[in-house]
Design goal:
The protein has 134 residues and is mainly α. It has helices at 2-41, 57-91, 106-111, 119-133. The structure holds zinc ion (ZN).
């Protein structure tokens, strides 16, 4: 009995340690994203123009712009997810599936720390989306 308690406490401690690591990773990722989005704003990216040799300069400039906008939109979304994940770490709800309330496995959290769903709910959600799309 005592042995079991000790084991559970150890597992809990190591989980909190992992959350601390994940939190640091997220903060790092956020800093990188913010630095990158600064570069994009000042025109540091010029993607894929050579793939469209027939485009006029005007058209490729517009394509660049929409690419940049799309990229920024994606980054904004990711930044928001990171912020939300950090908030969950702070409030102590990190690692709990928002759909079923079960704990999300540590393995999954390490691979995808911004996730809010356990693997079972995520799989179900993806299956639902597939049905809607087809
Ligand atoms: Zn779930």
């Amino acid at each position: 009995m005592v042995e079991k308690d000790r084991k559970e406490k150890k597992e809990r401690d190591s989980k909190e340690g992992k959350f601390e690591e994940i939190k640091k990773d997220l903060e790092h990722q956020k800093a990188v994203l913010l630095a990158e989005s600064g570069e994009i704003i000042t025109g540091g990216l010029n993607p894929g123009v050579e793939n469209f040799p027939d485009m006029t300069d005007q058209a490729s400039a517009e394509a660049d712009q929409s690419f940049t906008l799309r990229l920024r939109e994606r980054e904004q979304k990711l930044l928001k997810k990171i912020d939300e994940a950090l908030e969950r770490v702070r409030s102590g709800t990190f690692g709990i599936c928002e759909s079923c309330g079960e704990e999300i496995s540590l393995k999954r959290l390490e691979a995808r720390p911004v996730t809010t769903l356990c693997i079972a709910c995520k799989t179900r959600q993806e299956a639902d989306e597939k049905i809607r799309e087809s």
